[in-house]
C-alpha cells in the first residue's frame, strides 16, 4: 500500500463543490459554544456534501479564528446562515419540506441504527450545546429525536463527533 498524495485524491475546487449535487441534509447548530466544534462541523459537512449549516444562538460564525482553523476552508464551500433563535431556523427549513430531527437523548428517541429515513427525504439535523445538549424548547419544535447508542460510562459524545457519526449513518441511507 502507498499513501495517496493530495493531488491524487481528485478533490473538487470550492467553485466545483458549490455547483456539485448536495445531499438532502442540512445541519442546525443550537447554541454550540466551542468555535472549534463549529469549525469541525463545517469540515464534516463539506465531506458529506451537506446542503447548508444554520448557526443559531451563541454558536460562533465565520470568520472567527477558531472556526477557520478547524474548518480548513469549509466555511467557503458549505453554505451557512445565522439565526438568533434556533426555532426560527427550524421554521424556515420546515417550510422547505425538511423533517426536523434533534440528535438528543429523550423519551421516545429513535436509535440511530434503527432510524429509517426516506431515500429521497429531506432532513434537518439539530445538534446542541456541548454540556446542555439541544434545548428542550428546541426539541419541542422538532419532529423526532435520534439517539446515538453508547456503551461506556459517559453519556454523551463531543458535538463534532456526534455530527460525524450521524452524518455518516444518514449518508449511507439516503441518496446524495
Brief digest:
The chain has 176 residues and is of the alpha/beta class. It is 34% helix and 18% strand. The protein is built from 7 helices and 7 strands.
How does this model look, in words?
The protein has helices spanning 14-19, 35-47, 65-71, 74-77, 86-95, 136-139, 159-173; strands spanning 25-30, 52-56, 80-83, 99-103, 110-111, 123-128, 144-147. With 176 residues, the chain is α/β, with parallel strands linked by helices. It has one domain (18-173): Alpha/beta knot, CATH 3.40.1280.10. Strands 3-2-1-6-4-7-5 form a seven-stranded parallel β-sheet, sandwiched between helices. Strand 1 (25-30), helix 2 (35-47) and strand 2 (52-56) form a beta-alpha-beta unit. The protein is globular and about 50 Å long.
Give descriptors for this structure.
176 residues, Alpha/beta knot, alpha/beta, 34% helix, 7 strands, seven-stranded parallel β-sheet, 7 helices
